[in-house]
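Components:
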Amino acid sequence: MTSCHNYESLPAARRVAIFGGTHGNEMSGVTLVNQWIKNETEIQRPGFQIKPFITNPRAVEKCTRYIDTDLNRAFTTENLSAEKSEDLPYEVSRAQEINRLFGPKGSQEAYDVIFDLHNTTSNMGGTLILESSKDDCNLQMVHYVQNALIPMSCSVLLTEHPTLKYAASRSVAKRPVGVEVGPQPHGTIRGDVLDTMKKIIKHALDFIQLFNEGKEFSPCTVDVYRITESVDYPRDKDGNISAMIHTDLQDRDWQALNPGDPMFLTFDGRTIPYEGDSTVYPTFINEAAYYEKQQAFVITRKETLTVKGIRVSQA
Amino acid sequence: MRLYNTVELRGYTAITDTVHLSEREAERHSEHNYSKLRVRERYSSQMDRSMACSPPLSRVVVSGGTHGNELAGVCLVKEWLRGDSAPCLERSSFTAQPLLANPRATEQGVQNTTLAPPSPSDPYELVRARELDSLLGPKGSDEAVDFICDLHNTTANMGASLILYSLSDYFCLHMLHHLQTHMQLAPVYCVVFEEPPSAAYSLDTIGKRGLALEVGPLPHGLVRADVLSQMSEGVKLILDFIDLFNRGTLFPPCQVEVYRKLEGLDFPRELQSGELNGTVHPERQDRDFRVLNPGDPLFLRFDGETVRFKGERPVYPFFINEAAYYEKKLALWTAERVSVSVPALRVRGGLGGAGGGD
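Structure:
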């Protein structure tokens, strides 16, 4: 028997977008979105509009992460409200255009859901990235996707943090969802990684369709990894990286890192241990694109979120 | 298919290029039904009498960062240039010199630079190539350095691969044998791109001798401790070998298996637009140097269709799904596996020990 108190009535999702090529060399998203643009019937569902979209076409053309600046950090209030000019970095102009087409960010006119497809060199498997611990609809969706993917696992990274949350392309939507699959070297297309991403999107769209058509989703719990800290590489006095991710940490995304465990290995063979005071769960370990962002990995803590039951409102 | 070639090269003659197929492969292709034993019996007496000799090597260069985003070589060379780990370049008979081949690309973290060149007709890499030729060469001359080991990484699963340009490069083939016997951290393979030295265009061909050491898989733009260790061990063994050679070690005749490049295969593409419409099949991904038989799955189209290998004989693919080759329209190279009988090798003149004569 369901309790009304635990169920939330939420509007249907009528406008959904799927972004690829936010980073031009993350090829799974580029490939899938181009396929869906060419063959729209493959992605369409009854009852809601799905728009596949290449967000950074110039970077895609050059198969590079970005042209002037990282598009996935460009959707700040400052950038979105900057005066249009030819002197603006390419990605800032692009962010303004995307905000116009799929936003405006924070308004009622914005798209309901945007899936932003990414790859990483880190061994993260399939990962869904959420910005809010309070978005019951998104949380029910990830719960649904995780169950549908079993035995394949799918982790949930929560970037709800005052300084570590970034102004991503998907943030123009009411409900942004990052889809990150790795490991894959940038600039390559691995068949297994492409397949994982395709499955994640399929199950996510299944959820939206079921929800829109009136299916109720019972209260549940979702285990998430909440981001708490970013850790840089050790550097020498000139700012050059002086150590690498330790072999014992490499590829161990989502696995416990205990105080005293090896963390970095200097080029002359010395181990630098993790010196925190409790067990943490690192991820984005050794992502190539983060060397320039001074990030060797991020630290997360496991949390179990209680999620309300939801049903579509009949308005 | 040839059974053997004799080659006169730099003063010695030896048997090259005996093509050996395992019994299973021979059964599949009856026209190549040669047995290893028969080849050995026919040529063993001639092999025993031949010896490859060449002078000692003193000017040895280890270069990294020819492609600025292949970071294991960059890290090693930068450490050596800082002086911290330079002792590992010293041997009793020589000291290898580290070199950052493409500093500008390394600084940018890219394969090649994209900065505006000083003059419109000279890209940075061309200017740099000429600088390197005058520093390490000139190519083809007596002034050229004795040996260049050029460090590379690949996104392909190629372990530690030595890249050579000739099947009769006996010095490097003995070096290969040394690595295969001693290397612990990665499997060692050898790929031969047969090109005359004048046509080969890579850095390692500037010196009198040279090779590329390609270690993978490693995504471009990052360094992994395990790959760095593999590359480090590879360099150590290469320099050990040169030192053993210089000090008069006699390397007895040996047999090595190498992969001789055949042709490159592109990804499946749309006929009209040329756009990619498939990728390496998951059953082939990461299977560098494993036999690819006619009919085996090779590519998987994005619409789910499997594309099978249409060749007429088994081949050995390598550089499978290398990121930098997408723009060159290459999904992988194919190779034939060749067993090469390498004659004995000893230094001529130089340090300790009389070398064998020509």
